[in-house]
Amino acid sequence: MNNYITGAVFAPLAILVSACSTQAPPQQQLSGKSAIEITAMSELEKQARKKLATLNQMMDTARSQGIDVAREETIVWFAEQFLKFANWDEANPQAVEKLYSYERYYAADKERLALELPDFERRKVIQILDKGIEVLGQELRGEIKRRPVRKVDWQNAKASDNMFVNPDGKAVFPYDYFSKTVGQPLTNTDIYNDHLGALYHGGENLYPVDHDRAINSFLLKEDGTFDQELMKELTGIPDTNIGFLVHWLMGIPEWVEAQEPEVRKGRSLFTGFDIDNPLARDVWGKILRETGRLTKDKKVIELGFVLANEPHWFAEKGHWTQKYQEMNEISSYTLNKFRSWLENKYQNNISALNANWQTQFSSFDQVQIEIPIDPALQGQPIWFDWSRYNMDRSTEWFKFMQDELHAVNPDADTHIKIMPRMFMYNERSGGIDTEALSELTTMVGHDAKSFGSKNIRPNKSSEWLEKYRFDWGSVSMFHDFLESVAPDKINVNSESHFLSSGQWRDLDTRTSYVRAVYWLATLLGMDANMGWFWARDPDGSPEDRLEGELDFFDPGLGGAYAGSNNMQPHVTNEVTQVMYDLNSFSDEIITLREQNRPIRLFYSETTAINTKDYMTKGYKLYESLFFEGFPLGFATKNIIEKQDNSSWDTIVVYNNSHVTDAEFSALQSYLDQGGTLVLDSHRSLALNEYGQPRGQKLQASKGKLIVLNTSNIQAIKQAALAQVSSSRMPAIQLIEDNGQPFKTTMWRVQAQADGGYLLNIINVGHNTANIKLKLANGQKMQVTDLMTSNTLGAEISVDSEQVLLLAVKPI
């Protein structure tokens, strides 16, 4: 089978690391009965079916009264599906054990877990049915009134300027699961429906290339013609539903390698060839143009083309990706392009490079570099030059891809599945400039994640658990950066890891977490998401790729099944329920999004490349400002130069030791135009990209320059808040008492045309937060819970992970 490296190793990167470890997992007990106590299946199913009958009867009554029951229809659908799944799991214990065995966290306890799973699923079905009966009962009794569900029009929704819209012009947030069960037709309504989402797409390959619809290297034959049988997997997608297509870059045909022996030098985990290789570029240029031509004006590209799956080119010694042949060496093409880059960077002055690198090259044509590079060199000029070039060359590769596509379909939307670690983590040797790529593509793309419970991997930090119920910061800071860079672009999460990943999963995930994390991400900019992952066939069996002996380049997919939403009816149901609510309140969500960001945190890729803890420190300042009632933003050289500076009140420069002259000039220009800047210390901005002292210091000019000479986060926070104009402070004061010396309630306020306000509250802490609301002008208020239409007081108790959407009117 393997005369090339097979495609689509689309598991989260952390899984790749874990797959190589043999450490025994801790015990984890499913809620409900132990293996010895499990009762007969028929008893629990009888209970569930009795409740199903009750709920169906209530739904008939509700319909007769004109009450929308879309939410209950989804509960019924998932209940039926998971009762069927539970029966399959009970009839196939060895298969379930095997699925548990692929994930080392569960492997040692696979027999008990497999035995308990069917009853666990049935009990969770009963749980969602009980909740459905309770809530619909409240509406039938007139205790609450819910807004009818606004569904995504899967056939006719369109990409607008910065949101997806239904034909009625109302914003919608499409949702689905990335890599739905392979082998099922796209017209199968057990897979493509309102409950699981109904986006059509060309996925990725884990078996030979004729197994799925990915756009891949094997479409082009050596004679320059296209493999029409493989192309049918693309052209055969029904032009019925909106969707997206993935460019899968894993494999490379043997004939290319025969002509270009260097083609695999400098490959990465998810890009199986050298992006600087001219033949590889020629192959992909032809594929991009042909597939772009064939799919032009098709609904399946309404959510755009994913130009790459989780791209990165980590080029430092000792990085875990090296065991997957990532950047173990570079090609002559990459080296020569680096030489040209250096010649331009140093303005053809080889003496300047030699002085920086402490070398004695006679010309740029003679420059050599050892790749992978030694991480001990971080902070030195050679480290910066290679790291910056590695980013620039990958950006140029994606520009090439986009240009080829746009040559035949100039209106095609594009995005890249950028891993949040490429921005959120400290390491910058991966060749990804998140800002540059977000500026390049027509949509913003990523696969943002969160943690709903502790990291399951040994020696991995879960520090956020000390203060918060879930890892909200990974979602918020990443989205705020993307939205700062590209505020007018659609934001697509093409593989959302909110439910599970290689680093965390929980067999009894809280539904409150599911609601909170999806609501938070959407509030902060996410327009569409494809969750990781759906791997059940309609009969309950795992999809094709998880059956038999797993023969993948990466065993992570098999490990991803255990503890995932495929085993959790309450989780999968809640995803759809929260997306129903978000779509029903999409006008309100969009209104809350469209606010200015009065405080901008300065971000420098230059400092990030040169230092070891830039993001760790930067997050601490971000965290301190997050709970003040308004959205945070970021400022970079490009943002300052390209965007309206009047949309914010101040830029805060914290822990930015190294900046280029261009970055420094952008900050000075901002002051020259009358801007306000809070600088932690004159030590910030004091060095250039090579660590050389800068003679200049910022001058206030026409603006306001506040130099604090402190690294104290609270002092910097207070100085920043003091610069926010009263018109941009929240019109509602929220006073929080959660029993802790720190805040855990995020909130956003937006004025409405009727003189009232929208107020969104999410408590991300462990404790209930007792909230007092006050209008800035001291007026009394009327508070209405928009989800229930019930009136609340000005004092509210907000449970851990509770989400509230409120209308506040002065009276």
Structural overview:
The structure is a single chain. The chain has 24 helices and 24 strands. The radius of gyration is 27 Å and the shape is globular. Helix content is 36%, strand content 13%. The longest helix is centred in the first third of the chain and has 31 residues, at 110-140. Helix 3 (70-91) packs antiparallel against helix 18 (569-584). The chain folds into three domains: 158-346 and 371-378 and 385-550, TIM Barrel (Alpha-Beta Barrel), CATH 3.20.20; 599-727; 730-810, Immunoglobulin-like (Sandwich), CATH 2.60.40.1180. With 811 residues, the chain is an alpha/beta fold. A five-stranded parallel sheet has the order 13-12-14-15-16, sandwiched between helices. This is Glycoside hydrolase family 42 N-terminal domain-containing protein. It comes from Catenovulum agarivorans DS-2. GO terms for molecular function: beta-galactosidase activity.
Which properties best describe this structure?
811 residues, alpha/beta, TIM Barrel, Immunoglobulin-like, 3 domains, 5-stranded parallel beta sheet, 5-stranded antiparallel beta sheet, 13% strand, globular, disordered N terminus
Low-confidence runs of at least 5 consecutive residues:
1-27, 31-39, 203-212
Biggest β-sheet strands, sense, barrel = 5 strands, parallel
Structural class: alpha/beta
User: Could you name the CATH class of the largest domain?
Assistant: Alpha Beta
CATH superfamily of the largest domain: Glycosidases
Task: Summarize model confidence as the mean pLDDT.
Answer: 92
Query: What is the overall number of helices?
Result: 24
User: Quick one: how many beta strands?
Assistant: 24
